[in-house]
């Protein structure tokens, strides 16, 4: 089990707005808050978002560079994936691989893929889905 994940972000306010509602929907609750960061916790695992220092903002994040490619979360069901997809679209969040959605990861993989404000790819996957190819 993962203890915690810490992500440095380019705009903490935007990241808190984006991740706050999403993590709330997934059952996480606010865990810690301070001037330069905030975290959410579910069980024993927590996710931390920290404002990156100005001097490190010159090279933007890209998931194809060495490092994190994406974060994948469990959905409760296929219906939950569909509900979250609708909420993302209502919030003008771009759905990735729209031409293959909700089977973008393959014919047995029911999920929605999207990006956070820093373009970190996020996946919400239904129970019973197979391995992912994106």
Automatic annotation (TrEMBL):
All copies of domain VOC, residue ranges: 1-127
The name under which this protein is listed is: Catechol 2,3-dioxygenase-like lactoylglutathione lyase family enzyme
Keywords noted in UniProt: Metal-binding
Source species: Lederbergia wuyishanensis
- Which Gene3D superfamilies does the UniProt record give? 2,3-Dihydroxybiphenyl 1,2-Dioxygenase, domain 1 (3.10.180.10)
Entries under Pfam families matching the protein: Glyoxalase (PF00903)
Report if keyword Metal-binding is assigned.
yes
| InterPro entries hit by this protein | Fosfomycin_Res_Enzymes (IPR051332), Glyas_Bleomycin-R_OHBP_Dase (IPR029068), Glyas_Fos-R_dOase_dom (IPR004360), VOC_core (IPR037523)
Q: What is the lineage of its organism?
A: Bacteria, Bacillati, Bacillota, Bacilli, Bacillales
Look up the domain of life of the source: Bacteria
The transmembrane segments are none
